TrEMBL record:
Species assigned in the record: Tunturiibacter empetritectus
Protein name in the entry: Metalloregulator ArsR/SmtB family transcription factor
Tree of life domain: Bacteria
Any Pfam family: HTH_5
Single annotated GO MF: DNA-binding transcription factor activity
Upper classification of the organism: Bacteria, Pseudomonadati, Acidobacteriota, Terriglobia, Terriglobales
NCBIfam families: HTH_metalloreg (NF033788)
CDD domains membership: HTH_ARSR
């Protein structure tokens, strides 16, 4: 899974996570993305650059505007990696459930 370090490093910043959350609602321009924050447009543009380099957002040209949107492939790569961890965690819980079920069966057998 290529580029995961860059993707997760980009997510370490709360402003970038907020930008991604906003983009989950749909495409937005830099001005639209900057409006909820108390920071300059160049500062927001720098965050957008980090997100673009991480492959998490895509920019398209529309005249003088450069609307951004989520990059499906970048988000899916992180989701796939997290899904692998989730599957491993479920298997661990299943094994724990089996051990606990065996323990309960042994306790019931001793009471009789």
């Amino acid at each position: 899974m290529e580029g995961l370090d860059t993707k997760f490093a980009a997510l370490a910043d709360p402003t970038r996570r907020a930008i991604l959350a906003r983009l989950s609602l749909g495409e937005a321009t830099v001005n639209e993305l900057a409006s909820p924050f108390e920071m300059s447009q160049p500062a927001i543009s720098q965050h957008l650059k980090v997100l673009e380099e991480a492959g998490l957002i895509i920019c398209r040209v529309e005249g003088t505007k450069r609307p951004r949107r989520l990059a499906k492939e970048g988000i899916e790569a992180m989701d796939q990696w997290l899904g692998m961890l989730h599957t491993a965690l479920e298997k661990n819980y299943d094994r724990l459930d089996s051990v606990l079920a065996g323990t309960n069966t042994q306790k019931k057998g001793k009471k009789r």
